[in-house]
Amino acid sequence: MLQVSNTVYLSEVPSVTLPPYHTTNAYWILDLGRAVLVDPGDGQEASIDILERDWESLGRPVVEAVYCTHYHLDHSGGARKAGDAFQAPIYLSRDDQACLRDHGGDPTGFQTLSPGRISVGGMDVEILAAPGHTPGQMNLWLPDDRGLLAGDNVLGNTTVVIVPPDGHLGQYLHSLKHLESLELAWIGPGHGGIVRHPGAYLAQYIAHREERNQQILALLSSDWHTPRAIAEDVYRGKLSDAEMSMGEWMVRGHLAWFLEQGWIEEREGQYRKVGAHDFS
Ligand SMILES: [Zn+2]
User: What is the pLDDT of residue 232?
Assistant: First the structure.
């Protein structure tokens, strides 16, 4: 267990998740013998054992709730087991309960996690709607600590994969800009190490997306392209052939948003910037 701040502790639990990660970050917000657990992991036995051991080390606080930032199973899959272990209600946003159902999961037992202020012991915690990675992702902001539990909006060592139908790039950029405005002192990501320079890190995240937007739009201003062709252009030398279909999905995330904005048009699976000259 790692102490992140005066009131936040990190239990890194093994989970089945996207490479390069093998663990999910579960967080405890602890004050005056009261706690909430955020993102208990996927529920494998080893991870529940770690949570129970760390709960003992924290002095067996009363666990008031288990919150899931979003429905992906590496975050919410262990909610029921953790809720049973610590006799606490489990929470997930309404939109992500619907996503869980759409993906063949069962949201029974989840209460609705909504934006707003709660308190843990004497600590204020603000629950923020921060969609983009999933439609109903929630982040937890600790104004006294100037800390943020970011779910998968931020990862410790890599950028985040935003792919439809869960992901929405426009919403994601909007959420990142809101998080940037909080002037955070640290971010607890969903996976990977604690981010200790959040201002620079978020700025880099935003710049990375915007650069990619410009790059794809520039490509589409000359001619029609398939998502695959775009991926092969923008990820050339960065992704292997085997990884290129993931690249194609990421490109589709950009295209879905550009279409929504009316910046591009689609014809038989190919895309072009609106108003581009047709040289063919
Ligand atoms: Zn995750």
Answer: 94
Burial (CB count <10 Å: 0-12, 13-18, 19+), residue 77: buried
Give the whole-angstrom CA distance, residue 18 versus residue 34: 32
Last residue of a domain, one of 122, 154, 186: 154
Taking ligand 1, which is a single-atom ion, which protein residues have CB atoms under 5 Å away?
Answer: 74, 152, 190
| Ligand 1 centroid to residue 17 C-alpha, Å | 6
Distance 158 CA to ligand 1 centre (A): 12
Give the pLDDT of residue 280.
46
How many whole angstroms from 72 Cα to the centroid of ligand 1?
6
Ligand 1 centroid to Cα of residue 276, in Å, is 39
pTM listed for this prediction? 0.92
Domain boundary among 154, 170, 187: 154
% of the chain with per-residue pLDDT over 90: 88
> Total structural domains in the chain?
2
Q: What is the pLDDT of residue 246?
A: 86
Using the mean position of ligand 1's atoms as its centre, give its distance from the Cα of residue 248 in Å. Answer: 20
Q: Say yes or no: 128 and 230 in one domain.
A: no
Closest CA to 66 of 134, 18, 7, 138: 138
Q: What's the pLDDT score for residue 243?
A: 86
Residue segments in the chain with a per-residue pLDDT below the cut of 50: 280
pLDDT of residue 277: 58
Considering the domain architecture, whether residues 6 and 97 belong to the same structural domain is answered as: yes
Reference 13, options 22, 23, 21; nearest CA is: 23
- Same domain assignment for residues 139 and 13: yes
What residues make up the domain containing 80? 2-154
